Amino acid sequence: MKSWIGVASALIAGVTASAALAQDAAKGERVFATQCKACHTLERGGASVTGPNLYGLMARKSGGLPGYGYSEAMRRFAIVWDEKTLANYLRDPKGDMPGTKMVFAGVKRPDQLADLIAYLKEATQ
Ligand code: HEC
Q1: Probe target for ligand 1 pocket from 91, 102, 103, with the most ligand atoms within 8 Å of CB
Q2: Distance between CA 36 and CA 123 in Å, rounded?
């Protein structure tokens, strides 16, 4: 009896955890739609509009999309995009990377930034 309760609560905890993650990414999708979509596409082979296509972003080198005309600052920045480097850049693009040509004030709300990054991880792979 006891072990059943243990299994059941472990299952419930697992379901709740994945539901919470899914919800974050869903909220992040709205952040992307309102703040990024005008300039970026996410799908494989998507067009580079004003900004570069972001497919495969995680673990991609900054300024690494062949054929896109990055700023000097982006080409020289030489980092790999992961949760931390993205958070720094998206919170304050020009503060993080002086000279970037991404004209965007930054996502200032920590919850929106976390949701957005959760969504980007899912949607760019
Ligand atoms: C007004 C257009 C515009 C908006 C809005 C915008 N970006 Fe950008 N983004 C750009 C441009 C232009 C670049 C290239 C910057 C450079 O070369 O310095 C860029 C670069 C990037 C890069 C680096 C990509 C690479 O290949 O290294 C990421 C990541 C990124 N943007 C994510 C976002 C996200 C997420 C949002 C929404 C929160 C956003 N951008 C909003 C125009 C925009």
Answers
A1: 102
A2: 13
